[in-house]
Design a protein that fits this description.
single chain, FAD/NAD(P)-binding domain, 2 domains, five-stranded parallel beta sheet, 17 strands, binds NADP nicotinamide-adenine-dinucleotide phosphate
Length: 308
């Protein structure tokens, strides 16, 4: 069986960048992942990718994909990785279609999974008005009332995008200050159809067959419920570390894959990049993910060259 120099898991900003660098180091590279473009495709407007003022997340990720897959050194596949094991001189992974792939080094770049609130009605009405990507799903709520939960970039950007099509957007955030970029906060404040429900939270999603409203922790304008057709839950994401942990990689106290400045994990030959790691001070951005992907590939190159 062919043994690749580097196996990269994750088809987002970090994974694609790692593949571009690996290819240019002339490492035989196997790039695999389940979701083409990763969370990057959820950004309606990127705005901070240097050199490209006006690009959407899907377009940026499509450029990355084309670039990464343009090299003959890169084998690219859409698949889930079911299992990874250490072998005598590298790693072996099993894909969901039964294929087994071997490599000398491994880069985890699987990003993160959207967090759920765990409140009554949430799972039951998931896909029936409850969604976890405001920018992806807002279009389906034209002329309707929706609620966006959270105060980070995803929620505030999501509220601004939703306000372009929805009748009314309730932005419900548990604090009065937002952690989102001031750019997005200003943008959403300028929207006349956005109602700020601050220092509050939702405790239940209401509805039988589909969402009809949300229950609040505290009354807002005299009522402890708000009638909406859609609830966009944007309360952050947790790093997808399960596979890495199964291989013996350690995670930090916040649950992120522990890496050093060279993106090395505690397991020899295993590296991490992007939102899954504790690198870049937890600043999950396109630029930091790309930077980490480049460093991880450089470290994989050094590891392969040293013949370990
Ligand atoms: P985030 O920055 O972690 O923000 C999550 C938000 O949800 C916070 O406001 C948090 O409240 C709130 N929250 C968390 N748990 C909650 C709970 N149980 N109940 C109610 N509220 C809860 O996540 P994010 O907005 O998804 O962003 C993740 C990363 O992606 C960030 O680094 C962000 O900059 C980046 N991103 C960038 C862009 C862009 O540049 N275009 C777009 C989207 C995301 P507190 O504030 O009180 O903690």
């Amino acid at each position: 069986m062919k043994k690749y120099d580097v196996l990269i898991i994750g088809l987002g900003c970090a994974g694609y960048t790692a593949a571009i660098y690996s290819a240019r180091y002339m490492l035989s590279t196997f790039l695999v992942g389940a979701v083409e473009g990763g969370l990057g495709i959820t950004a309606a407007e990127v705005g901070n990718w240097p050199g490209n003022i006006d690009i959407t997340g899907p377009d940026l990720m499509e450029n990355f994909r084309k670039h990464a897959t343009s090299f003959s050194e890169v084998t690219h596949k859409n698949a889930w990785v079911k299992k990874i094991e250490k072998t005598a001189d590298g790693f072996q992974m099993l894909l969901d279609d039964g294929e087994t792939v071997e490599g000398k080094t491994l880069i985890f770049a699987m990003g993160s999974n959207k967090r759920h609130l765990g409140i009554p009605g949430e799972e039951r009405l998931s896909g029936k008005g409850v969604t976890y990507c405001a920018t992806c799903d807002a279009f389906f709520y034209k002329g309707k009332d929706v609620a966006v939960i959270g105060g980070g970039d995803s929620a505030v950007e999501g509220a601004a995008i939703a306000a372009q099509v929805a009748k009314k957007v309730y932005l419900i955030h548990r604090r009065k200050d937002f952690r989102a970029e001031p750019y997005w906060v200003e943008k959403v404040k300028a929207k006349e159809n956005v109602v700020f429900v601050l220092e509050n939270n939702i405790t239940e999603v209401l509805g039988e067959q589909k969402v009809s409203g949300v229950k609040l922790a505290k009354p807002f304008e005299g009522s402890d419920t708000i009638n909406v057709d859609g609830v966009f839950i944007e309360v952050g994401a947790d790093p997808a570390t399960a596979l890495a942990e199964s291989l013996g990689c350690t995670v930090d106290t916040k649950g992120y894959l522990s890496v050093d400045a060279a993106m090395r994990t505690n397991v020899a030959g295993v590296f991490g990049a992007g939102d899954i790691t504790s690198g870049s001070n937890y600043f999950a951005q396109f630029v930091t993910a790309a930077g980490e992907g480049a460093i991880a590939s450089n470290s994989a190159f050094n590891y392969v060259q040293a013949g370990r």
